[in-house]
TrEMBL record, chain A:
This is Peptide ABC transporter permease. It is a multi-pass membrane protein. The chain crosses the membrane at residues 27-49, 96-122, 142-166, 211-241, 261-283. It comes from Thioclava marina. Keywords: Cell membrane, Membrane, Peptide transport, Protein transport, Transmembrane, Transmembrane helix, Transport.
UniProtKB/TrEMBL annotation, chain B:
Gene3D superfamilies: P-loop containing nucleotide triphosphate hydrolases. This is Peptide ABC transporter ATP-binding protein. It holds the Pfam family ABC_tran. SUPFAM superfamilies: P-loop containing nucleoside triphosphate hydrolases. It is found in: Cell inner membrane. The lineage of its organism: Bacteria, Pseudomonadati, Pseudomonadota, Alphaproteobacteria, Rhodobacterales. Belongs to the ABC transporter superfamily. GO terms for molecular function: ATP binding. InterPro entries: AAA+_ATPase (IPR003593), ABC_transp_ATP-bind (IPR050319), ABC_transporter-like_ATP-bd (IPR003439), ABC_transporter-like_CS (IPR017871), Oligopep_ABC_C (IPR013563), P-loop_NTPase (IPR027417).
């Protein structure tokens, strides 16, 4: 038997195959590009924004977008009730949305992975404890509790992150627990035990790499969700405090002038829509590539 | 002294009791997957363990290695009581007792390269001073099991079933163990590959002085390589003895029916098949008395109430049956 003849090229790994599937999906790639553009916009906001986002100019109060009568092209998306440039505020607002989205998801996913691995691998009372906490948290209405927490703790960036992450971790935790319950019974896990591997080694080195794909997919989908929640909190005035620009609070600011100055609310609303939509479509592409089981 | 001695080894699984069961005082449902097993394995021999699916063969193999913690009983390996070892001592002992698995697809972590998989025992037991030495040792053992040195940075999915089984064997052997549980290592492979893997296992045994507990449901495989055979039925050993004795002169009716089921090329009508009625009883609710009585053509009243003990029927040959004295043989009966 020729050993070489039946093995494919050594460079082909599972990860590469998955990435190739993803990059072959044009719509997902376009959306991934849009997400990247938003991130670039957030990181380089001071260079991209045409004006200071907090500079008020009462002469430009509710100035329309550049292409409308009374508008100016240097304030292309118009100005808000305090005469601040809407485009600049959207550019700076991306920082808040994306920063909170990433931090909440990172914190929640890390906690969720550890909790899920512990529950799924150690079973017994550990699983009992973690699963009951998860069940209880799942019973909490997400936004209402976030509002309650924010009302208790007061506004502030880290308070928002806590108010969103306190519950977000249950989602990756459940995914990881379920995958771990299946994976722990596989023979390679038993082989590691037979070789004398510790529980930590088995959980982190044998099981974790094999349950990561669905976690990555879930994390991206949930990031869109977290961004909406942050916008909702800011809309309700419980998020980042003025004058710091946040898309949610910008939508709220424009609500009073919806009929005479639609642009104040509409453009930040569109920013939320595009970012969330792009993340969702891109994450579906990721899901199809990394976890074909979930695709219809 | 035997290399491995198993005394009264049992592995029971308790069913979960819900709140309702506890309130009504319902008893635990207990699955006696492995029940009161006694056996010894001499250094350098191959003990074949045979039985149908679900009879507890694999559970017994894993209980011996404490991969499944035994419920009762003792396992003594080379004078050390394995069942009494603490975690650290058990880890050290694992170097000397290894296992080869059935499923060549499930037994290798798909996210690790061959070098990482096969090198893991060296890392865990500190048997390689540095990466270069580790890779050298991995390449050496891979060459020994018939893999090319250039293949050690590949992933498991790039290999065929037979090659994957070779990787699993390399992983089990790299720490130079003395005793290996082979848990149906060839049943998932094509027949032509089976022969290669069996030849490899025999060659490695000679070369490295290994001792095998070889679990299989394939009598021809066991007949080819085992020195002694133990036959399991519903978690218990019903007959054990030298392979020639078991094959030529099986004494337990269950063994006799197993032997009659072996397909023969030379079809001179030597044996008729003994068809057993019914299915393997549920281990949740095993029959009283002799576990085999529900399907045994020779069963008498005593079989339904009393459990037979193992009796010596020849040199090194024991069987557990109430009707050994009558010297009944189903094989003879059907021949007539």
């Amino acid at each position: 038997m020729s050993l070489a003849a039946e093995t494919p090229a050594a460079s082909e790994t599972i990860l590469r195959r998955n990435l190739a599937t993803f990059t072959g999906n044009r719509l997902a790639m376009l959306c991934a590009l849009i997400v990247v553009l938003f991130v670039v916009m957030a990181v380089f906001a001071p260079w991209i924004a045409p004006h200071d986002p907090n500079e008020t100019d009462l002469f430009r109060r509710l100035q329309p977008p550049g292409w409308m009568a009374g508008g100016e092209w240097s304030y292309v998306l118009g100005c808000d009730a305090l005469g601040r440039d809407i485009l600049s505020r959207i550019v700076y607002g991306a920082r808040i949305s994306i920063f909170i989205g990433i931090v909440v998801i990172l914190v929640a996913t890390t906690i969720g992975i550890l909790a899920g691995l512990a529950a799924g691998y150690l079973r017994g009372w550990v699983d009992m404890l973690i699963s009951r906490i998860v069940d209880i948290l799942l019973g909490f209405p997400y936004l209402i509790f976030a509002i309650g927490l924010m009302a208790m703790m007061g506004p502030g960036l880290w308070n928002i992150i806590f108010a969103l992450a306190y519950k977000e971790w249950v989602i990756p935790a459940r995914v990881v627990r379920g995958e771990t319950l299946v994976t722990r019974e596989l023979e390679y896990v038993e082989a590691a035990r037979a070789l004398g591997a510790s529980r930590g080694h088995i959980m982190l080195r044998e099981i974790l790499p094999n349950v990561l794909s669905p976690v990555i997919v879930v994390a991206t989908i949930r990031m869109a969700h977290v961004i909406i929640l942050e916008a909702s909190l800011s809309f309700l005035g419980l998020g980042v405090q003025p004058p710091t620009a946040s898309w949610g609070s910008m939508v709220a600011d424009g609500r009073a002038f919806m009929l005479e100055a639609w642009w104040v609310s509409t453009f930040p609303g569109l920013a939320i829509l595009f970012l969330v939509l792009a993340i969702n479509v891109a994450s579906q592409g990721l899901r199809d590539a990394f976890d074909p089981r979930f695709s219809e | 002294m035997s290399l491995l001695k198993v005394e009264g080894l049992s592995k029971h699984y308790e069913g979960r009791r819900g709140i309702f069961d506890r309130l009504t005082g319902a008893k635990h449902t207990v699955v006696r997957a492995v029940n009161e097993i006694n056996l010894t394995v001499e250094k350098g021999e191959i003990l074949g363990l045979i039985g149908e699916s679900g009879c507890g063969k694999s559970t017994l193999g894993r209980a011996i290695l404490r991969l499944h913690e035994p419920t009762r009983g003792e396992v003594t390996f080379d004078g050390t009581e394995v069942t009494a070892l603490d975690a650290a001592a058990l880890k050290a002992m694992r170097r000397r007792m290894q296992i080869i698995f059935q499923d060549p697809y499930a037994c290798l972590n798909p996210r690790r390269t061959v070098a990482e998989i096969v090198g893991l025992p060296l890392k865990l037991h500190g048997l390689a001073a540095n990466d270069a030495e580790l890779r050298e040792k991995v390449a050496a053992i891979c060459a020994k099991v018939g893999l090319k040195p250039g293949q050690i940075d590949r992933y498991p999915h790039q290999f065929s079933g037979g090659q994957r089984q070779r990787i699993g064997i390399a992983r089990a052997l790299i720490s130079h163990p003395e005793f290996i549980v082979c848990d149906e290592p060839v049943s998932a492979l094509d027949v032509s590959i089976q022969a290669q893997i069996i030849a490899l296992l025999l060659e490695l045994k000679r070369e490295m002085g290994l001792t095998y507990l070889f679990i299989s449901h394939d009598i021809s495989v066991i007949g080819y390589l085992a020195d002694r055979v133990a036959v399991m039925y519903l978690g218990e050993i019903v007959e054990m003895g030298p392979v020639e004795q078991i094959l030529a002169n099986p004494r337990h009716p269950y063994t006799q029916s197993l032997m009659s089921a072996v397909p023969e090329v030379d079809h001179a009508g030597r044996n008729k098949r003994i068809r057993l009625a019914g299915d393997l009883p549920s281990p949740l609710n095993p029959p009283k008395g002799c576990k085999f009585h529900t399907r045994c053509p020779l069963a008498i009243d005593a079989c339904r109430s009393q459990q037979p003990g193992a009796e010596t029927v020849g040199p090194g040959h024991t069987a557990a049956c109430h009707r050994l004295a009558e010297n009944l043989s189903l094989l003879d009966e059907t021949q007539a």
